[in-house]
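INTERNAL AUDIT FORM
Audit reference: QA-55
Scope: verify that the stored structure record matches its stored sequence.
Auditor: D.O.
Record contents follow.
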Amino acid sequence: MTFSMPSCALPMILSVPVVCCHVYLCSSKERSDALMAGFNPADSFIWFELYGSPSDRDVDLIGSVIQSWYVMGRLGAFNSSNLQLANSSMDEYNPLYDKEKGFNVMPSSFHDISDVEFQDNWGRFWVDLGTSDYFAIDVLLNCLTVLSSQYLGIQQVVFGSRNMGDWEEGMTSPEYGYKHFNI
């Protein structure tokens, strides 16, 4: 099953774990596919492969994006059951937001995340999306697509899997290309 970028509307159902999803980030003129094969939203790594080893600035930039995404998730931002204004016309000057409806939907929030780690050109972080839905993945991919096209190059994003590239568990020495960003 394949899906096109840049919108990358990933039609995943929360109760159905998907192990691995590859998303290749590219310019809007190129085609990119996402292949679903098993991502567990409650216990998975999200990986990204850069075109080269990240600079300290790149680590801070990617880490800040992931940290912002996580904070929004902890605060319940990724709840597609309460997208009241998303379906409003942009021609409406005073759209209404029903706070009662907002309070009456099932709460949605991330449970946990690890620090962002890098070894050479691979980066990863572990996440438990909690009760959030896959709208969170769309938002993350939108951010990473722009980050890749305008600030640094990301070859691919992989959802799931325990090992990617030549990742070496337990290797935390900066001498061997290890860097991290504290969330």
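Auditor finding: record pair retrieved intact. The two ends are 33 Å apart (CA to CA).
Action required: none
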